[in-house]
Amino acid sequence: MVRLTRTVWTQLAVLAAITVIAVGVMAFAFVKVPGLLGIGRYTVTIELPASGGLYPTSVVTYRGTEIGRVKSIDVTRDGVRAVLTLNSATTVPADVSAAVHSRSAVGEQFIELTPGSAANTPKLGDGDVIPVGKVQIPADIGSLLDATNRALQAIPPDNLHTVVDEADKAVGGLGPELSRIVDGSTALAIESQKSVDQISELIDQSPAVLNSQVQTADSIATWAQRMASITGQFKAQDAAFADLLTIGSHALEEGRALFDRVAPALPVLLANLVSLGDIAVTYRNDLEQLLVLFPQGTAVMSAIALANSSTKHKGIYLDFNLNLNLPPPCNTGFLPVQQQRSPSDQDYPERPAGELYCRIPQDSDMNVRGVRNIPCETKLDKRAPTVELCESDQQYVPLNDGLNWKGDPNATLSGQGVPQNAPVAAVPYDPATGDYIGPDGKRYTQADLGHSDNKTWQSMLVPPRP
After folding, report:
1. Poorest-pLDDT segment among 73-82, 114-123, 178-187, 456-465
2. Is the pLDDT of residue 417 over 70?
3. Residue 373: per-residue pLDDT
4. How far is CA 206 from CA 190, 211, 213, in A?
5. Cα three-residue angle 13-19-20, rounded to 5 degrees
6. Quick one: what percent of the chain has pLDDT higher than 70?
7. Residue 450 DSSP SS3
8. Higher per-residue pLDDT: 139 or 438
9. Residue 422: alpha-carbon gap to chain centroid
10. How many beta carbons lie within 10 A of that of residue 174, not counting itself?
11. Residue 453 or residue 98, greater confidence
């Protein structure tokens, strides 16, 4: 009987340990014995309309990571049923869809699981079924090749030969340009990935724009026809158009020189036009009304200026009944007579301070179109003589209730008291008719004012005859 030495026993023990470790690594890492025994794995059934090229041991991925294999594939009455074994360590939501894809051009189909949009859904468990409505399979390669073959056979060989020859002529020698197009397209695709959300939103909103184009197809066709007519006219008048471009260059040069000359003052002009633009925006409704009424008024003036042969008045009828002093002029709110400047003076004094306008009540029948009755643009229910008064909460206050006083135009605004004794104002008197305007604004007639020989102190106490 041979007795083994201690060294041999040690070597055998080391060899046995290495063998056990190697077998364990092969069993757990490569053969995956726990998975074959169902440890740490669960099964899910997926229903497919067709196999789509799947086969047992096909890979199952979730978010690009392999999580299982296809265990078996069985044919059913309605399609195909595939049993998947998935790794329990990876949590997959129950709201999941499946799609069969190819890893390469030669096949190697695999199943990709894609989670749905619902949040906080339960996870996929053992025995769950993914229905056929949530499964996609690739198109049948055989049917696709047959359809492609039929399409190629429908192309006449002679025409195809012509297409190839013309294509060669079109792109022949354009290798560098095509390379730049490809490089630019690649760079554009890379940049597009950075704004995929905006591009997706653009694609989602594009149907509304495209539908509007479809709805206005007739208008677009009409526009295209008219544009073709215009371009046809340009073609027919090619020589004249060329002369226009030649002569137009000189006009453009003159225009450029004009802009160069006005360049120093143009910024100041544009800055001043900003305030003018604000005023135009405020009075937009009035400007629109003016533009509407101006053509009508012009037409009316043209009509009345036309001679009318059916009447004795040929053309415009002029009436020289001027109705002077009906109603009488408004004097309240202007400078007193002592401060009024004679029209014969040739000096140019400074403008008096304050606003000079008729300051009688707004409901007076005198000077009804005066500045005191201008409607406020921003407050249509208010009338005021100035923009400041329109924008404020104050109401228009006449200078006094009477029409016989001419005093400081700023009396009420500055807080000064209204004088009770108004200065005597000289008014024009017509000796021929005896007419004059009284301090109250009314017309009076007294023919004997100019004849002092018939005047007595008793007659001066009698009120004038209206």
Report:
1. 456-465
2. no
3. 92
4. 22, 8, 11
5. 90
6. 78
7. coil
8. 139
9. 62
10. 11
11. 98
Q: How far is CA 151 from the centre of its chain?
A: 48
DSSP string, 356-410: -S--S-TT-SSSTTSGGGPBPSS-TT-B-SSHHHHHSS-----S-SSSS----TT
Which letter, b or e, does each residue of 79-98 get, where b requires 16 or more Cβ atoms within 10 Å of its Cβ? Answer: ebbbebbbbeeeebbeebeb
DSSP three-state, residue 48: strand
Residues 6 or more apart whose CB falls under 8 angstroms from that of 401 comprise 361
| Predicted pLDDT at 352 | 77
Q: What are the beta bridge partners of residue 107? A: 104
As given in the structure block, the two tokens for residue 99 are 């799609």
Mean pLDDT lowest for which of 190-194, 241-245, 262-266, 318-322?
318-322
Q: What span, in angstroms and rounded, lies between the C-alpha atoms of 124 and 91?
A: 7
CB 134 within 8 A of CB 97: yes
Lookup: tokens for 277: 């633009």
Distances (CA, A) of 20 to 6, 28, 31, 93, 415: 21, 12, 15, 39, 114
- What pLDDT sits at residue 319? 63
Average pLDDT of the segment spanning 301-320:
64
Structure tokens at 46: 């997926």
What are 405-408's contacts with CB under 8 Å, separation 24+? 405/332, 406/331, 406/332, 406/333, 406/334, 406/335, 406/336, 406/337, 407/336, 408/354
Report the alpha-carbon distance of residue 210 to residue 223 in Å, rounded: 17
